[in-house]
Design brief:
By secondary structure, the protein is of the alpha+beta class. α1 runs parallel beside α3, α4 runs antiparallel to α5 and α5 crosses α7. The longest helix has 32 residues. It binds glutathione (GSH). It comes from Rhodanobacter caeni. This is Glutathione S-transferase family protein.
Length: 207
């Protein structure tokens, strides 16, 4: 398998899952600053012109959550549960994609991506709106996690990785994580996992 990645948000969870599962992937670094995700060769794999993309034999997969589920299923791992928990995992994947990450990643965009790619100053009004949105959504997460270690059942799933993608950047992205003790505790537990703390391969060794 070949995984096209970059050291940004969406590929982060895929790299974390691949490392966690020790999936047999060759890593191909995509340099976004040089527009490598918009070249004809890359667009032929992923017409969205975004990272990540996984090539597994004849199968080409884009969308980070599909890739994490594929890697887990390929390893027969409970990260993507095959029983009744699967619907709950899907619920949290959808919630992350539609509700939580749009507001959290707006803050990541304002405070991490803009300075990194020199695309302007953070927009304080947009950031304040995103912080309000984050607080509304994080309250739902807080209440769910108050008496739970993981989002689904009693074990780690792809849903934990998907919901948490912005949280490693909480301080630099001005994400008000500190106001949500159960979410913070859950994320600290995730941070005990090497693959979550250090998900990215060495750029120098990636082809
Ligand atoms: N829905 C896609 C989103 C992928 C995505 O937005 N990737 C970003 C990095 S986090 C990207 O490649 N941005 C480059 C661009 O839009 O030009 C997924 O989950 O894989």
């Amino acid at each position: 398998m070949k995984l096209y990645w970059s050291d940004v948000l969406c590929p982060r969870k895929v790299c974390a899952v691949a490392k966690y599962l020790q999936s047999p992937v060759d890593y191909a670094y995509v340099d976004l600053a040089r527009g490598e995700h918009k070249t004809p060769d890359y667009l032929a794999l992923n017409p969205n012109g975004k990272v990540p993309t996984l090539v597994d034999g004849a199968r080409v997969l884009w969308e980070a959550d599909a890739i994490t589920c594929h890697l887990a299923a390929r390893s027969d791992s409970d990260l993507w549960p095959q029983d009744d928990r699967q619907i709950d995992a899907l619920r949290w994947l959808s919630w992350a994609g539609q509700e939580f990450n749009p507001v959290a990643s707006q803050l990541y965009f304002q405070y991490v991506i803009k300075p990194r790619f020199s695309i302007g100053e953070p927009d304080a009004e947009a950031a304040a709106r995103a912080q309000d949105g984050f607080r509304r959504q994080a309250a739902i997460l807080e209440s769910h996690l108050r008496d739970r270690r993981w989002l689904v059942g009693k074990t780690l799933t792809v849903a934990d990785f998907a919901v948490a993608i912005t949280l490693p950047y909480a301080d630099v992205a001005h994400i008000p994580l500190k106001e949500f003790p159960a979410v913070r505790r859950w994320h600290q537990t995730l941070c005990e996992i090497d693959a979550w703390r250090e998900p990215f391969p060495d750029i120098a060794v990636a082809a």
